[in-house]
Amino acid sequence: MKKPELYIGIMTGTSMDGIDLSAVHINQNELKIVATSDISFTSDLRDYLLSLKNETTLYDISQLNVRFSNEVATAVNRFMEEKNIDRYEVRAIGFHGQTVWHQPESRQFCNEQVASTLQIGSAAQLAVRTGIDIVSDFRQADIALGGQGAPLIPIFDYNFLKSDEQDTIVLNIGGIANITYLPKGCGKSDIIAFDTGPGNCLIDYVAKQKFDKEYDSNGTISRAGKLDEFMLRSLMNEDYIEADYPKSTGKELFSSEFIEKHKTDGITDIDLLCTLTHFTAKSIAVNIEMIAKSGYKLIVAGGGVNNSFLMELLERYTGMRTDIAILDCQDITNSRESLLMAFLAYLRVNKLPANIPSVTGASRETVLGAITASN
Question: What CATH number labels 5-152+336-372?
Answer without folding.
Answer: 3.30.420.40
